[in-house]
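Sanity check

After download, print the first record. It should look like this:
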Amino acid sequence: MAIAQELPQLLKQRLFYKGRKFNFDVASLRLPNGSEGEWECIRHPGGALAVPVTPEGKLVLVRQYRFAAKGRILEFPAGTVEINETPAETIKREIQEETGYRAGKWQRLGEFLLAPGYSDEIIYAFLAKDLEKLEKPPAQDDDEDMETVLFTPEELEKGDPSARISQLAIEEEDPVCIETMQLFVRYLARQSSNLVLTMKATGGLFLGGGIPPKIAPLLLQNIFYHNFLDGDRMEHLLKKVPVKIIRNSKTAMTGWLRPNW
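Expected C-alpha cells:
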C-alpha cells in the first residue's frame, strides 16, 4: 500500500543511535497540523515475511526465543532486508535458513507498516508454495534459537495446547496443568535413569530435543531428580551421573558413554 509522504519539520535532533540492525533517534518536530513536540522513532531498513504452505496444506512456522518477549513465540519466517538486497531476495534466503524449506512458487501479498506509532519499518509479505525440504539447510545465525513447526490452519487458529499446558505449569497458574506436567516429568526421569543403566552411561546424561529445553524450569525441580535416582536400588550409581539440559532444540536425548581408558 503506497503511503503519501508528509514530512514533519525537524526542529532539533536530540539523540541518534546507530545499532546493529536498526537505528534510533529522538527529535523535536513540527507536524503538518502545526503541533510541536519531541518524538522517538526506530529507523529500520524493512523486513520480509513468508507464509509458507506445504503441498498438504500445512503452514510452516518457527517457534523462536525472543529476549524482548522473555520467551518463545510462534512466528512466520521473516528477516531484515540487508544492504543491496530486495525483499524477495531476503525472504528466499530467510525461509531456507529458518525452516529448512525451499519454495518453488512465490506470490507477493503486499506490504504494511509494523508499528507506525514509533517505527518506520515496513514488512513485505509473500506467499510461499511448492515447498521442498532441503537435505542440508544453510546454517542459522549464532543468536537464533528456533525450531520449525507445522500446523493446519485450524490448529493454528486454536493455538498450541501442549505449549500452553507446560507454560501454565511453569507459572503455577493451573493445578491440572501442574499435575499433568509433574506426571510427564516423573516419566521422563524414570526413562532417563533406565537409559543410563541400560547404556552404562556413567559419563553423563544429556536431555535435548524439542521438549526438555522448553520445560527446563520443571526439570530443575526436585521431582525430576528424586525420580531419576529411584532406579531399582541403583541410587548409588545414578548419584554419580551428571544430568544436563541441551538448549539446542534440534539435539535428541542421548546418553554419553564414557570410554574406559
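If your output differs, re-run the checksum step. Summary of this record's structure: The chain has a mean pLDDT of 85.
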